[in-house]
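Entry 12.
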Amino acid sequence: MTAFRRPRVRVPRRLAEALPARFVRNEDGVYAIEFAVVALPFFFLLFMIFEVSFTIFANQILDNAVSDAARLIRTGQAQQQNFSKAQFKKQVCDRLIGLFDCNKYLYIDVKTFPNFGSITFAKPTDDEGKIDDDAFSYDDGGANDIVVVRVFYEWPTLTPLTGSQMANLANGRRLLSSVEAFRNEPFPW
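Predicted 3D structure (tokens):
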């Protein structure tokens, strides 16, 4: 009786060497792998661009509102109506759009100086990165007085990862500021 012998399958040497090469040359799914490698930095950069752009947009809105409201002081309208700090703050808030929470995060500081060379200010934040609204005052001055209007806003960061890179306050927010320095007009009152 003859023993059954299984036929031996021989893979040609060239084919055996070609299998890894074919695997390396196979391009199925390569775009998904490339996207997976590039996606994290791409989305981080995209969110950072959105965060910075939105913050710059908000600061521009704040600058415009402060410039318009400071004109009330410069022309003497605020002095004629005996504005308080709260009333001037309301004038700034009325010029802001709905992105801002004026009651909680907006701070006003209006001071007069004898000349432009004597203008100095302390930092708006303490060593812990907190703003103290009681440290700010409101003095809109009289005719021909030099007045500096400073307005600060605690802007929220939008995204946790990219926003934390921009935060400069203890509560994780970004401090936006706007300053107007001018000499009051020579109004007669």
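Annotation: The chain has a mean pLDDT of 88. The longest strand covers residues 146-155.
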